[in-house]
Design goal:
The structure is a homohexamer of 67-residue chains. The first copy, chain A, has 67 residues and is α+β, with helices and mostly antiparallel strands. Chain A has one domain (3-64): Macrophage Migration Inhibitory Factor, CATH 3.30.429. Chain A has helices at 15-33, 59-64; strands spanning 3-9, 41-47, 52-54, 57-58. Chain A has a two-stranded parallel ribbon with strand order 1-2. In chain A, strands 3-4 form a two-stranded antiparallel ribbon. Chain A is elongated, with a radius of gyration of 15 Å. Chain A starts with a strand and ends with a helix. Chain A binds chain E through residues 1-9, 13, 17, 20-21, 24-25, 28-29, 32-33, 35, 39, 52, 54, 59, and chain E through 1-9, 13, 17, 20-21, 24-25, 28-29, 32-33, 35, 39, 52, 54, 59.
């Protein structure tokens, strides 16, 4: 019954990588807490780099400096 | 003053259906808890089926099996 | 499969009222979008009035003025 | 280490305005609570006006009336 | 830089189990997407069973039936 | 009409500091985007240090090392 929300910057994660995240986190919750995978929900949000800030600045700016 | 966030898979909900969700949930909060509709906020997120997992797999995969 | 998060101020909603919100929003999603109630998840967050702001001030302050 | 999520309607906020929101909120958390800007994360969600409700109706409808 | 929010019902997860969830999901994001663990943020919300609904009813009710 | 959610670790923020965050972020949205303060909602979540992870470990652990 857990609900997991993963937010990452939109920088080309493939469908297969997203499938791997969903399977991995569902498995983790079963192993650690015995949660039923059948009702574990995982939602991935991919956020534009202009809309994600860290250290007070946009990821877009950081990427342009090679960070 | 309540804030409601509804997350659904992006599978063709129409503008009218979304209007109905907004009106319905605002009305529900007024009926059950006496909340003022004027300041009730509802945000609907439509999520790609590749980004939504249940039972450890993507909705895209489930849909391809007719689930 | 929808996920709904309802945030309200912590001002004494009863267990029965919360049950009514859960039943009501699950029913709404079935009626409007045909969503399966069995996998509809609803999470209610009750937030201290010191931690909720509207109009630039805390709900605690507004309540002290009778708003 | 704070995490801030800002949700606004998608109505043309520029990259510069979003940069200003990110810098402003990061600075605010440093001034008020002494939080380290280096690990302050800000995520901005821009939501279609059909998907945002207030007062029981979509922002799209309100905008069409000049509100 | 990812942000992960895990919501579970408040039913006695220990500090060690929560540590394991945090380590596990941070590791998963590094393995699958190459995300830097140093800036991966994980927030766990533990929700009262009265405030969590699935299948249109509270988890409290389901637990009382042994589900 | 914006909605802002601020998550911080629960480490003694006072009511006055929370009031300052609410006023500050509401003002920021008015200055940068012209958003109406009357309908700007701010919700602050204070999260136990056991439930907040960064760098793959709990804040509780980091604090015990003086970080």
């Amino acid at each position: 019954m857990p609900y997991v929300n993963i937010k990452i910057t939109k920088e080309g994660a493939s469908a297969d990588q997203k499938a791997e995240l969903i399977a991995g986190v569902t498995d983790l919750l079963q192993r650690v807490l015995g949660k039923n995978p059948a009702t574990t929900v995982v939602v991935i949000d991919e956020v534009e780099t202009d809309n994600w800030g860290i250290g007070g600045e946009q990821v877009t700016i950081r990427r342009s400096r090679g960070q």
